[in-house]
From TrEMBL:
Species name: Mumia zhuanghuii
Family of this protein: Belongs to the THEM4/THEM5 thioesterase family.
One example of a Gene Ontology biological process annotation: fatty acid metabolic process
Subcellular location: Cell projection, Ruffle membrane; Cytoplasm; Membrane
Protein name in the entry: Acyl-coenzyme A thioesterase THEM4
Length: 250
């Protein structure tokens, strides 16, 4: 079924999820992923630069005009809807718009070597949360951390084959989290029918425990026994080897 995007077709609907399917050959898809990943990284750098710049006001005005011109160029051809979930050639799910780990989302912080990784207990990520993620002065915004935990919990549940969506999320902020490196871990504690009880921790760059979180994930009724395809991530072991590995590029 055509959806107005020349590079994909809508493939099927599973409950709330519309899966689109790429129409591009594997090499072309990989080439596009690399190009869009580079654009996303450039825009992320731009966002950080515009936040921190101290150039004079005339230059600020000139840059604003240039950025608007660049935006107009990108919009000469753009999809109307969000990215959703696209199926790649290996059948894997590509969620490039995701707010935490989307390959094409400049706000996403869990990308490239900073992505989320799975092991047989759950999921882990080591992130760089810089000035764009500030809440208390010099510290990570509490809502940003909740966002990261929300994604991490669904990752951890999927890593152990117990997928679900977040029904409840509780965060205990134990100490301010300095901007910079944070490491988050999440794991499954209890399964009770469609309910999964999860736990997570956040450590700052000095190894201090800064926050803990608990979540109830529920396997939605519409997903039970369905053919839904959940995204997969590389193993934590991969971090010991090629840390430039970008799991989103398949
Ligand atoms: C396929 C690829 C998908 C990729 C997903 C990526 C996710 C990224 C991370 C997220 O952003 S998750 C998004 C935030 N979460 C949501 O949008 C979830 C919104 N809520 C729902 O969709 C439904 O309410 C939910 C799926 C959580 C439950 O609906 P159901 O109709 O399947 O469950 P039901 O009402 O039958 O309840 C099942 C059990 O869970 C319990 N339950 C459900 N919601 C609860 C709740 N909020 N608090 C406590 N218990 C809850 C409920 O009491 C019951 O317990 P018992 O079995 O003991 O009776």
């Amino acid at each position: 079924m055509t959806n107005g995007d020349p590079s994909t077709d809508d493939d099927r609907q599973t409950g709330l999820v519309t899966y689109s399917r790429t129409l591009l050959a594997p090499a072309e898809l990989a080439r596009r992923d690399r190009a869009y990943a580079a654009l996303t990284e450039a825009v992320r750098e731009l966002c950080d630069a515009q936040l921190r710049t101290e150039v004079d006001l005339e230059e600020v005005g000139a840059v604003a005009a240039e950025v608007r011109a660049v935006t107009a160029r990108l919009l000469t051809s753009a999809r109307e809807r969000s990215f959703g979930i696209e199926l790649g050639h290996d059948g894997g799910a590509r969620e490039h718009g995701n707010a935490v780990l989307g390959l094409r989302n400049p706000f996403a912080c869990a990308v490239g070597a900073r992505a989320m990784f799975w092991d047989d207990r759950g999921a882990r990520a080591t992130l760089e949360l810089g000035a764009l993620y500030e809440g208390p002065p010099g510290c990570v915004h509490g809502g940003v951390l909740a966002l990261v935990f929300d994604q991490l919990f669904t990752e951890a549940a999927a890593a152990v084959g117990q997928v679900g969506m977040t029904a409840e999320l509780t965060v205990a902020y134990r100490r301010p989290i300095p901007l910079g490196t944070v490491t988050v871990d999440a794991w499954l504690e209890v399964v009770d029918g469609r309910k999964r009880r999860m736990h997570a921790t956040c450590h700052d760059g000095d190894g201090n425990l800064t926050a803990e979180a608990e979540a109830l994930l529920v396997l939605p009724r519409w997903l039970e026994g369905s053919d839904a395809i959940w995204p997969k991530r590389p193993p934590v072991d991969a971090l010991d080897g090629d840390v430039s590995l970008d799991p989103s590029v398949t």
